Amino acid sequence: MSRSLDMDSLVRGATFAAALGLFFLLILLPLASLNQYAVREGFAVFRDRLRSPDAIAALRLTGLVALAATAVNAVIGTAMAFLLVRHRFPGRKAINALVDIPLAIPTVVTGFALLLMYGPLGPVGKFLGERNIQLMFSFPGLLLGHVFVTFPFMVRAVGAVLESVPRSAEDAARTLGAKEWQVFAFVTIPAIREGIVAGTFLTFSRSLGEFGASIMVSGNLVGRTQTGPLYIFSRFNTGDVEGAAAIAILLALASFLILLLLQLVQSPTARRTA
Amino acid sequence: MTAPHLSLEKIRKAFGGKDVLDDVSLNVETGELLAILGPSGCGKSTLLRVVAGLLRADRGTVRIAGREMNSVPPRDRGIGFVFQDYALFPKMTVRDNIAFGLRVRGVPPGDRIRKTSEMLELVSLAEEADQSVETLSGGQRQRVALARALAVSPSLLLLDEPLSALDIKVRERLRREIAAVQKKVGITTLIVTHDQEEAMELGNRIAVMNEGRFEQVASPRDVYQVPATEFVAKFIGEVNVLPGQFYRGSAYAGNLAIRMEGNGIPFHGGTVKVLLRPEDVTLLPPGIAEAGQTHANVMSVSWLGAHLRVEMSTEEGYPLTALFQRSHAMADRLSAGDTVRVAALRGTVLPDPLGAKEPEYFL
Q1: Which end of chain A, N or C, is more open, meaning fewer C-beta atoms within 10 Å of its C-beta?
Q2: Contact with chain B for residue A184, Cβ under 8 A
Q3: Distance CA B284, CA B287 (A)
């Protein structure tokens, strides 16, 4: 009996070791080499690369687009979660499946599709172009791409929490004298707060790293529509490995901090009640 | 006589083509505690939600204190509602939960604090006032819910299975507390339950509901002793249902004569259903049956503590259950296979339109 127990713990130990080993090989080592390349030419060069106007513009744009996409999805993603969880209507299952489409199709395809629709040759793009509104190769186009790609995160994060929230607390508030906006503000929103926080962080962090859709819809205009990941790609292509690595390190660090923060704000008590 | 505080007129509600409430009418007097009793799915919770305005009836009228409420939202109906799952606001303290209604109604802070403290005292939770409701036991949570509902001084208290999520000991204690609080506040109350004991103990009157209709609305004594339908008799307590005949003012199940409970039997003869409570079946030592008695064969005897339960088969072939005191003279001697004489103390008779036309066992 103790033998089989020993076998069990051996197998368990080996599995954990394999998981840690792969984590090390696939995630930590590449990140470490990023670090190595970033400071290969000395810290002065690293700082210099970060201070380049194009790099700063790219980082600023990345932050702005991520903030805007998060804000938009916080509203429409939450609304979609309510629609899917709280209402029964024909086609609900189809819409429910379609929400995850951005996760399933390559983001380049997303960008391509947006370009065909809203680009200068697309039906909507042509209509808008005649009125001097250009969606593609500009901030709105970029935002559109990011909103599309990150859409499922907010819907799923809020939807999962919303499903476990009983309706009776809202009914109780109604009988106690609350108007509908008070029910929503004082009862519903606090109940799904964790979902909104998680969705916000995931959306923001996903948006920081968005590449495929961005490169299609932005036109990759240096200093204007070039986001951080596009900047990294361009720098690498022109042989500036240090410049690419410097920004890459910064973006990786930002993503890590955001996800770490998410872990910290989801306190144990908050997760227990969810 | 004053007008009823709550008046329901022909409330109808259907879900997906199925009638959940089928022309339900009810009056609840001021200060009364009325229990709506019925099996799950009978429509009782739906009715309570219609009264509260959380659901809209397809037809019918809800009146509270004489005012028609059909298009009045829940917040303006002057009601307090207590839910089965407590429905507390999880991230708030006990005090904030109780003060919620006063806060959203814009009651000034001074009055709010005073009223909240008063409610905390009423349900004996003053010491837990600043704890999160998530630290409380089920019984305490339901007391918070009760205090929260009463804090806004409603004129009508609606309790939807308030005790059924609790374990039995807590349930019995809280049942008494609810009764005491209701009496102290003097508020007209409607409680929905599937627990007959709860309904009997709490209700001034009981409305027994089945398949979207009231089968009987009467005092706890009457629903037990003079059930209006077979459903009521079976749902509240245990009952023997025997085929019988009504003849010259008496009812007979075979040879067994039944003294009728209540007066005014609405029929003069023919096939009836005899409803006989097990404790109203009298067992006598074997011997020659007198008029109105019959013989029965004992199938099984079970000891239930203070009572014995005896399953029998009468000579007419009817199964019959009797319940009698441990101190009964025959208690120690009785065993399966014995023959006994049986008499009935009292019973209820219902018309049986589907019964046999001709008496099968009749002397």
Answers
A1: N
A2: no
A3: 8
Torsion, Cα A142 A143 A144 A147, to 10 degrees, reads 130
Residue B231: per-residue pLDDT: 94
The string of DSSP codes covering A80-136 is HHHHHHH---TTHHHHHHHHTHHHHS-HHHHHHHHHHHHSTTSHHHHHHHHTT---T
Of the partner residues A178, A182, A273, the one whose CB lies closest to the CB of residue B134: A273
| Separation in Å, CA of A270 to nearest CA in chain B | 10
Phi, psi of B33 (to 5 degrees): -110, 110
ipTM over 0.85 threshold: no
B134 reaches A (C-beta below 8 A): yes
Q: What is the mean pLDDT of residues B56-78?
A: 94
**pLDDT of the residue at B78:** 94
Name the residue of chain A whose CA is nearest to B100's CA.
A176
Pairing verdict, β B188-193 and B156-160: parallel
Q: What is the pLDDT of residues A28-72, one digit of tens each?
A: 888 888 888 888 888 888 888 889 999 999 999 999 999 999 999
* Mean of the per-residue pLDDT values of chain B: 89
pLDDT value for A272: 45
Interchain contact A187–B (C-beta under 8 A): yes
Q: What angle do CA A237, A241, A246 make, to 5 degrees?
A: 120
The candidate with the shortest Cα–Cα distance to B214, out of B35, B30, B94, B3, is: B35
Tell me, yes or no, if A168 comes closer than 8 A to chain B by beta carbon.
yes
Residues of A in contact with B152 (CB under 8 A): 176-177
**What is the model's pTM?**
0.82
How many helices, marked H, and strands, marked E, lie in chain A? 16, 0
What is the side-by-side strand order in the sheet with B188-193?
A: B79-82, B156-160, B188-193, B33-37, B205-210, B213-218
pLDDT at position B354 is 63
Which of B52, B91, B134 lies nearest to residue A175, judging by beta carbons?
Answer: B52
Query: What value does the CA radius of gyration of chain B take, rounded to a whole number of Å?
Result: 25
Query: What pLDDT does residue B268 have?
Result: 55
